[in-house]
Amino acid sequence: MTEPARIPEHGRDAAELLAEIDRRHGEDIDWRGGRAFSLVYNVGDHVHEDLIEQVGVRYLHDNALNPFKYPSVLQMELDVIAMATGLLGTAPDAGSLTSGGTESIFMAVQVARDHARSMRGIAEPVIVTPSTAHPAFAKAAKYLDVEHVKVPVGADGRADTAATEAAIGERTALVVGSAPCYPYGVIDPIEELAAMADDRGILFHTDACLGGWLLPWWERLGEPVAPWDFRVRGVTSISADVHKYGYTFKGASVVAYRNRELLQHQFFWYDDWPGGLYASGTSAGTRSAAPIAGAWAAINHLGVDGYMRLAEQVRDTTRRFLDGIDSIPGLEVSHRPDMSLFEFGSSTLDMGAVGDVMDDRGWNLDRQQGGLHLMISPYHASVVEDFLSDLEFAAANHGESRGVQATYGGVV
Ligand SMILES: Cc1ncc(COP(=O)(O)O)c(C=O)c1O
Known about the structure:
CATH topology of the largest domain: Aspartate Aminotransferase, domain 2
Order of helices and strands: HHHEHEHEHEHEHEEHEEHEEHEEH
Bound molecules: pyridoxal-5'-phosphate
């Protein structure tokens, strides 16, 4: 155990601190080399990276709490929301920018809770999600004191519509589907689920934190994409993270609604204190302006043609990974993914041990209960062959598993 840090009695030299930070940072995961499969969405383009870094530096000290003091930030925020809502198929004034997928999901659950209370007289609302829904829904249910009913998914890894229907009750405020879900990369049957909710006057959320900035391009490439956005009857809110396949740095997601009336359940106004009127659109108070500017720059720098080019690269690279894994004896992809992430496992091999050998060779594979998880970024195009040859070796030459737990996130 190292000693807990203390505030130094005398401030330290800036150059010395930077050197120390560089040394420490050097011990962190090397995502730039293509050996990390989640956490960072690696475009592998220095011009893109430099641009968003420069933009981040320019806005690092600015506070988006009061957008009216920052007309440039306000306009960029409105632009990002308008570009995102346009992509998702709703009105430009029916969305907001949050710090990430979890905050977007919190907002959608809070809107559903308050909508159920104020419009339907439900004192104790319930949310119904498939078992593959991101833990952010369970977390929102806990923090917002909403009951959470989890429905086991079908054999194909997708939400089970009959079981979901059976789980919907008088107090259901929100039904959820993912496009796609994190564990398997499959899209839930959003059309059926959302229609079921709509027929009963219940709100429906599509969690497109992963797919929101990729599936639209996937569809334009001619890939079969099951409907998931506002074109689907009954979808009332969508989360779509710009800091994932929108390719900006962390701190930017969009939560969008079918109309502004729903969004307004999110807004907070308060003047019952001596500090003047306080208003905010999301759960944050002080907000860094950097992610807003970064998101704006990333979207404008890439444009439709840039996103299409990267989507094609991600699609083709995902296929190369899938084909390669299919050809390695003993390994199988758990569920054919609808996008660029998936789980692979084995009925004969110890996947924990396979993961250990991959770790030893410098790959950082996330463990799940059913195997190992891959999430493909554009840059992975340059590491497919190395990865597959190490994986083939690991499948054929591994000992006992070191017992590395299946973890996602952490607490310090
Ligand atoms: C499907 C899905 N929803 C929500 C989230 C939560 O996003 P964040 O980690 O940005 O809060 C994730 C994160 O990976 C996700 O994959």
